[in-house]
Design brief:
The structure is a homodimer. Chain A contains 9 helices and 9 strands. In chain A, helix 4 (about 115-125) packs across helix 5, helix 6 packs across helix 9 and helix 7 packs across helix 8. The first copy, chain A, folds into 2 domains: about 5-150, Jelly Rolls (Sandwich); about 150-220, Winged helix-like DNA-binding domain superfamily/Winged helix DNA-binding domain (Arc Repressor Mutant, subunit A). With about 220 residues, chain A is of the alpha+beta class. Chain A is about 50% helix and about 20% strand. Chain A has helices spanning about 5-15, 20-30, 85-90, 115-125, 125-150, 155-165, 175-180, 185-195, 210-220; strands at about 35, 40-45, 55-60, 60-65, 70-80, 100-105, 105-110, 200-205, 205-210. The radius of gyration of chain A is 20 Å and the shape is elongated. The interface of A and B includes residues 89, 122, 133, 140 and 143 of A. The first copy, chain A, binds a DNA duplex (30 and 30 nucleotides) through helix 8.
DNA sequence: TTCTCTATGTGATTTTTATCACAGACAAAC
DNA sequence: GTTTGTCTGTGATAAAAATCACATAGAGAA
């Protein structure tokens, strides 16, 4: 059972649930479990079965593929209100995850048991539409990502990544490499190039974009 | 309106439609259009709006991302009974395609108008389950593909590709390159290596795998 | 047969990315 | 202040993939 503060947060981030009849909503909340996970927690991992469907309330989760040699690549990021479509996939079809989910910051979430998720999906059209639209968005994102990994050079992808983050950017070169699926040294060198061009200013765990237009041009080349 | 042979094919490949009440099925068929597309037809392309939802009856469609310099990469292949999940995505959310669909062989399909598709999706649970499971499968495939493109060497991916095709393989090196997102010369050289190891036998437009185990080992390295 | 078109083979070179091996730099803890 | 740990810079080298430039070869058409 959820406390009323959590309930409010839930309905705020997942407004489609408001359209549920009161009795169904109550039943849903009765089954749900609130959880808090500290930053860095591995929420789920490859080849594990799914436990339940997470509705994210705060924080964010990175969904990554890890390679044997320690490199990793971020597939996408899940924010509050976005839920985790990978889990839907798990719950609906195959029984296992095909990627790893890591809490990026401290995370609050509400977990729906598989049955409750299925019920909701089959009986509640707004929720269903919501899940479909998430699926659709992820599919698009992933196709974009495949294309970028296959055809773009790392400097272009790095430029795009820098532009996608709030300026100034607080992160390490290693974290950027992990997001791009590359290694720290390369990212450092590319950033140095950008800095020499006067496009960014570098500091420890900080990157300030000063010429977004140039980065954009490079990324779209 | 569809002729009875087409109807039969349709129900054979999409058995979940049999569970529709007769009246709804009739309405659906009345709205649907049968189409035949010769091999090589661009069924849809990037940045085009969707016309309708295709239910594939025969042939297959390659879904590819094309790069500016002419290179391309196959995202997945749609076979009869599989429909095209990318179109679902288009019809449900965003209005535009994010990839290209090309008929690989001659294709027969039945096209559902967007409204009929939405109706079917919201009113008919078996069809919905089917679409969800397709989404889920594609998502998994794409995650696998991203990971392969990011972390595997081309020889590994080529080996896996050869194993995934019926033996002996009738294709050109260029077609393989297009499937992998690489270029012809590299594929030729890698194939030559495989041949020197005694793993395959090469002919014009033909590759015979003679040591599947070795290829498998390489691909799983 | 000869011509033509497409498919394949291949060397040379370049570009891009990864790997290895440290050195210096900064921040927080002691 | 010194120590410790993380973060960053960087040269040297290697590995992988792409590009360029042709050569050859087979299959079908004229």
């Amino acid at each position: 059972m959820l406390d009323s503060k959590t309930q409010n947060l839930l309905l705020q981030h997942y407004p489609m649930l408001r359209e549920l009849p009161a009795s169904q909503l109550d039943a849903l909340l009765a089954n749900a479990t609130a959880m808090r996970l500290p930053a860095g927690t591995v929420v789920f991992d490859e080849n594990q079965p799914c436990q339940g469907f997470p509705l994210l309330l705060s924080g964010s989760i990175r969904i990554v593929k890890a390679a044997a040699n320690g490199r990793e690549l971020q597939l996408y990021r899940v924010s509050p209100g976005e839920s985790c479509i990978l889990t839907s996939s798990c719950l609906l079809g195959h029984a296992q995850y095909h990627a790893r989910g890591v809490a990026e910051q401290d995370v609050e979430l509400v977990a729906l048991p598989p049955l409750a998720f299925r019920m909701l999906l089959s009986s509640h059209e707004p929720f269903r539409d919501y899940i479909f639209s998430l699926f659709s968005e992820r599919l698009t994102d992933l196709m974009q990502l495949v294309s970028a990994v296959a055809f773009q050079k790392l400097d272009q992808r790095l430029a795009a990544l820098l532009l996608a983050k709030p300026n100034p950017i607080q992160t390490t070169h290693q974290a950027l490499a992990d997001e791009l699926g590359s290694v720290r040294e390369i990212v450092s060198r590319l950033l140095k190039n950008f800095a020499e061009q006067g496009w960014v200013k570098l500091g420890r765990e900080q990157i300030e974009v000063v010429n977004a237009a140039a980065l954009k041009k490079l990324s779209e080349l």
